[in-house]
Amino acid sequence: MLQRMVLSTIQFFRDDVLVHAGLGEDCAVIDFGDEVCLVTSDPITGAVAGIGELAVHVACNDLAANGGTPVGVQVVLLLPEQIQEDQIHQIMEDIQATAASLQVEVIGGHTEITSKVADPVVSITAIGRAPKTRFVTSKGAKPGDDLVITKGVGIEATVILARDFGHFLPFSVTDKEIEAFSQQLSVVPEGLCAAEHGVHAMHDITEGGLLGAVREICQAAKVGAIVNEADVPVAELTQAICAEFELDPLKLLSSGSMLIVTPQGHELVDKLGEIQVPAFVVGTITEGDHLMVNRRTGQKEAVTAHVEDELWKFFARLDRMVE
């Protein structure tokens, strides 16, 4: 639907735009001489608490997936009429603190209070830079490459579910536990390290989780892939939340984890370990265009369509409960 209704309408292309809008691509890449400028935009619509922090990380992570160093962010705030001044201030404090922690400046944007939204919507445009010879795209995956992920799946979803919906859980989650996950939300360090190491493709793992990210890599590069569930790390808290809410961790919003495609997966795992970023080989790129998942049960699952994020399924069940 995205290709048919949105991307197909784009008909004019400039020669100095090196990476255009397309399925599976995180950023536009623009030729600026010896360097390239990377630009990406992302909204946050599925969180309440910590929405400013999440918005900055999600946008800057897109830059990192292309091997870029974030420089600045533009912030668009669309806010409901009932919002309080201290809430607006808190969102901006979170944005500023998170951006500063990444050495990124808040360079502008737009703020609007409107009856058209029921909850705050934060949209970030992030701008970064990279050497012209070293930027990475999603199209470079080749059969035989290893699939490597960092940290583990479900990081962002764990933060959202524990912060906003912890009262539905039969066990308590402490602020310290949530903070431990929120401190893992950036993939800028591993993105820059992997780009220097020389990799074929990268994609930050956001909507649709690991399987959604792998499928987008496959679409961009016109290849297939195999993912081995038994090799995918899932933190204990994430496992417990997924079990309680009946969610599949492989299809769960996972900002904080980078998907990296490289011919030298185990060497990259060692390299990332040197900067204290845990990484794991979880599959391979194959010929063809099929994504297959080897489940722990021994079952083989083919992923042939858009991967709906498990978080949206959870929200849909909540809506029905309210009704």
Describe the 3D structure:
- The model has no long low-confidence stretch (mean pLDDT 94).
- The protein has 323 residues and is an alpha+beta fold.
- It has 2 domains: 2-131, 60s Ribosomal Protein L30, Chain: A (2-Layer Sandwich), CATH 3.30.1330; 146-322, Alpha-Beta Complex (Phosphoribosyl-aminoimidazole Synthetase, Chain A, domain 2), CATH 3.90.650.10.
- The two termini are 29 Å apart.
- It is 34% helix and 26% strand.
List keywords for this structure.
323 residues, alpha+beta, 60s Ribosomal Protein L30, Chain: A, Phosphoribosyl-aminoimidazole Synthetase, Chain A, domain 2, 2 domains, 7-stranded mixed β-sheet, 10 helices, 13 strands, 34% helix, 26% strand
| Cα-to-Cα separation, first versus last residue | 29 Å
Question: H/E element string?
Answer: HEEEHEHEEEHHHEHEHEHEEEH
Radius of gyration: 19 Å
CATH homolog superfamily of the largest domain? PurM-like C-terminal domain
The class by helix and strand makeup works out as alpha+beta
CATH topology of the largest domain: Phosphoribosyl-aminoimidazole Synthetase, Chain A, domain 2
Which oligomerization state do the chains in this entry correspond to?
single chain
Average pLDDT number: 94
Main β-sheet: number of strands, strand sense, barrel status? 7 strands, mixed
CATH class identity of the largest domain: Alpha Beta
* Topology, number of strands: 13
Helical content (DSSP H or I, runs of 4+):
25-40%
Helix count equals 10
In terms of DSSP E residues, the strand content is 25-35%
